[in-house]
């Protein structure tokens, strides 16, 4: 449970009137650049091949005016697990009590246009920033979230936390929920921290954005169907055992589909067969799920989800790097279009949570996902940070969060990349006297 370490020491109050300034970014040489059309500050810096306190000190030195930063996300990889508590305390001391600091251990980290996912190579990434006037950020207990209130949420959990009740709260909410699961080295050590406190195993933490600030999310699943895409579940038992597809025994249908698969699909099937369940949003997006086992006596297929219903659309799927790349590109374009259709949503920065099964090991080259994620934000140096996760959280497809008033349930995913873009809900560029800023900003979208 959140705050189980020492709740009296943690301040869960809102932070108001944050993030005024400009975009900032540190490049390879850690020199400062700026995107002049934006008015809100986010920065990201990183270190690799350096361990522990010296690496973090160098990163912290690059943060200009640390006491004025209002929120910070520190991501470290598993090579730093033994020093996590010390790193958290060092960062918290550097920023002070006015900065909302959230820290997490991942299987790798993301920052400065890179995905740092080389095994056993130490890396850490820090993103800091300020919100625009009228923006609010709060760190809250996920179990106490009131989804009837305005706000969008980031959710960070470890593998032993029970997040199903939290996900259920958002089924009929227009608030968006996005995040991921940390990557512990040991069951005995915490992997999530708030301010200077490492939370106990089994913890979760939610970061609420509200007021003039919201989240737009993208979930790119990276799987493609084999065989028929629009099978119908005609009989299901215990919510997760499919016994009939299109009126036939489910195992029989599986055998037919794999037998008739294209030759190039057979190797992918052997490396891991998945399935897709049609989402309820009407957009044609499928929720990818693992096949957990079989029940030959009833011709059943066990799916790793407890909520299957008769009438749901279904397909068998395989993981494919080319499809994964194209899916994320398509989702990014949809996200940019949705922002324009729904009004002035001014992007500030983005958090990227990618499955440990993606990255260079999946695509064969580094930085594939982040190269596409950066296209969601304007400017030459978009600010993106994040980590490689044990599981990813988000709505299927895209969501513009509470600003869209659209109800889209969030799910726990595998093999996906989830992007949570932080944006300002209303444009004030003309009021600020920046006559050409709005047009330049829109032009940056392409």
Question: Would you give an account of this structure?
Answer:
The protein is of the alpha+beta class. The chain folds into two domains: 7-220 and 325-443, no CATH class; 226-319, no CATH class. The protein is 19% helix and 37% strand. The chain is built from nine helices and 29 strands. The protein has helices at residues 52-61, 84-95, 164-169, 250-259, 263-271, 321-341, 360-363, 368-373, 437-443, and strands at 15-16, 23-26, 32-35, 42-48, 71-77, 100-106, 109-111, 114-116, 123-129, 135-140, 152-157, 177-181, 192-194, 197-198, 204-211, 213-220, 223-237, 241-245, 248-249, 273-278, 286-295, 300-303, 313-319, 346-355, 384-389, 392-395, 397-399, 410-413, 417-424. The strands form five sheets. A seven-stranded mixed beta sheet has the order 1-10-15-11-12-26-28, with no helix packed on it. Strands 8-7-25-24-29-16-27 form a seven-stranded mixed beta sheet. The chain has a six-stranded mixed beta sheet with strand order 4-9-5-6-13-14, covered by helices on one side. A hairpin with a 2-residue loop joins strand 18 and strand 19. The longest helix is centred in the C-terminal third of the chain and has 21 residues, at 321-341. It starts with 14 loop residues before the first strand and ends with a helix. Residues 1-40 and 428-446 have low confidence and may be disordered.
